[in-house]
Sequence to fold (113 residues):
Amino acid sequence: MNHLAKYLTMKIIPREYENDLDQIELAVYGMEGLLCNLSTLFVAIILSFIFHTTYEFVLFIFFFIPLRLSYKSFHCSSFLQCLVFSNMIILFASYFIKYVTNIPFFKIDMFEF
Fold:
């Protein structure tokens, strides 16, 4: 993931910052975080379609992301560990919302007329 982040950063960084290693490191770090989050979100969306938990996934993301941004978090030692661990938590939470909770507004059937 680091090589892809460096490649994309060097493609979009302005010419005047090409020799500023501190700015490049900062941009690569930001790009790596963006790619990690987007790939996790993409895999989670695909899994929510496969396991028929799309509505619950959206609810989880809607309520969890603001909470997650407010606190420090656990960091895995590799991108693959982060991807697997994050998607396991998202899938578990989606299943929990779908099958365990008994909150009426969570049980809205969007296709019922």
Summary: The longest helix spans residues 21-50. The mean pLDDT is 80.
